[in-house]
Write a structure and sequence with these properties.
It is a single chain. With about 80 residues, this protein is of the alpha+beta class. The chain has two domains: about 45 residues, no CATH class; about 30 residues. The chain contains two helices and three strands. It has a three-stranded antiparallel β-sheet with strand order 1-2-3. The radius of gyration is 15 Å and the shape is flat.
Length: about 80
């Protein structure tokens, strides 16, 4: 979330778009409470390990990570 919040602020859409994080250690959902242009706290939600929703979020996170790595490697010509 630390990386995306400044970008959302830059485009002045922090309060206009949904935002959710998935903490790595315990696979905890982190849902920020947004007030104006600031994050005013977070709600943490632990889904069951066998939850289809958690599995979907993990796949989305892993795919986004894979995409970012591929882009970086291509940009730096590390392939």
């Amino acid at each position: 979330m630390r990386a995306v919040v400044p970008v959302l602020r830059q485009f002045d859409i922090l309060g206009e778009t949904g935002l959710i994080g998935l903490a790595k250690e315990k696979e905890t959902l982190v849902i920020p409470k947004i007030q104006g242009n600031k994050i005013a706290g977070v709600k943490r939600v632990n889904l069951p390990k066998n939850s289809p929703a958690l599995k979907l979020l993990q796949v989305a996170r892993d795919e986004a990570h894979r995409f970012a790595q591929k882009y970086l490697h291509k940009k730096l010509q590390l392939d």
